[in-house]
Design a protein that fits this description.
212 residues; 5 helices; 7 strands; 27% strand
Amino acid sequence: MTVRQDIDRSPGRMYVSAGYTDKETYLIDLNSLDLSDQLMTKALEHMSEVRSDYAVYSEVDYKNAFNWPQLLKVLRDLARDSDYLWSEQRQYHVIAFYSQLKPSMNMSENMIKLLYSLDSAAFEEAMEGGGLLKYWFGKPDEELRNLATCVWRSKAEANAVRKKPRHIKAKVEGSPMYRNILIKELQLTVETGLKDLRVDCQRDYPVKSESH
């Protein structure tokens, strides 16, 4: 993705998703967050997969798919450098979107543009609503399976965005392209004093499942 050079990238602003870097509206204003959420957002910038089969939800537990121990270390370093005492437990809402495109959906240039258009519009809408701290997405594997995941400041903010028009449009127009869709809701907990960081599954539900 092309990175524009005329966008304000002062220290108080950063990208929530490394995948989208070409518009001002893809940036989060860190000054709009309290310090703990600022530090969490900065730590999540280092979020990455630790397994190549992260999109195979039947075999890989979400909490084992990413580098959570490293993120806790980064968060501790950031808190120390900011002289910040993490004095209470914090909980963040996580959504994992597991998908598999239909075999007929080859990854042509037009298909990639359509998926990008729907996804980036929904992402921009989420940024406008506030509360989104991280959006990560992988690449389709050989069987066209993929994973996208969001970390939200709260469940209420995540639920509010899901009802907005660009999210509804992405669901309506994108759904016919997929063979399988599974959504997991999880809770990311950071313990008092940064003693631990854990991810717990709260609910998972299939949105679409086709056997053929």
